[in-house]
Write a structure and sequence with these properties.
This protein is an all-alpha fold. The chain has ten helices and no strands.
């Protein structure tokens, strides 16, 4: 049981750790210290749903809907290009009064963006439904499979809440427009690189 749980935790944590659009967004909100708890909870619960589905064996969805990965890649790339353009525009304008005063978009707008980063990202499905689901098949007994799933879900909660609340350690150096401009340019670049990689790797 402990081996299964540990394997689930390590597998999920290593996959989530890679810098991506969702992580960059959580990092930015963490620096702003706004809607952090609910944002982290939304991301972790979304992962938990997908991880549970993957472990339960629904990773075969692609077999029944072969066009699903391509559809998600196009939608995800379009959103990433759009959001990256928004960050580049913000960096060019340099109007960071809201950020410097600790304000951000409203609660529902923040959750909506997080939902797009989560559910329009084909890599999320590959990681959770595909890879995590595949690793879980080495555990045949239901208790061990359940322990694996719990370990993987725990990794998601650990990561997102650590990232969201740990990001506030950057707050002292984010007190100037120049710092926010650098961060937005970095986030915009990450978004566009991910968008291009989605289009290039989609069969």
């Amino acid at each position: 049981m402990l081996i299964a749980a540990g394997t689930g935790f390590i597998t999920a944590f290593s996959l989530i750790l890679a810098i991506g659009a969702q992580n960059a967004f959580v990092l930015r909100q963490g620096v702003l210290k706004t809607h952090v708890f609910w944002l982290c909870l939304f991301c972790a619960v979304s992962d938990a749903i997908l991880i549970t589905a993957g472990v339960a064996g629904f990773g075969r969805i692609v077999t029944f809907y072969p066009g699903f990965p391509k559809l998600m890649s196009w939608a995800g790339a379009a959103f990433l290009f759009f959001y990256g353009a928004v960050k580049f525009r913000d960096a060019r304008r340099g109007d960071y009064q809201m950020a410097l005063s600790g304000q951000s978009a409203g609660f529902w707008a923040t959750i909506a963006v997080a939902a797009a980063f989560t559910w329009l990202n084909p890599h999320v499905y590959l990681d959770t439904l595909g890879l995590i689901g595949a690793v879980s098949t080495q555990f045949y007994a239901p208790p061990a499979k359940l322990a694996f799933a719990i370990g993987a879900v725990s990794a998601s909660f650990t990561f997102f809440f650590s990232l969201g609340y740990g990001a506030r350690l950057l707050a002292p150096i984010m007190k100037s427009p120049r710092s926010w401009r650098i961060l937005d340019n970095l986030i915009g670049s990450v978004m566009w690189v991910l968008a291009v990689s989605l289009l290039l790797t989609t069969p």
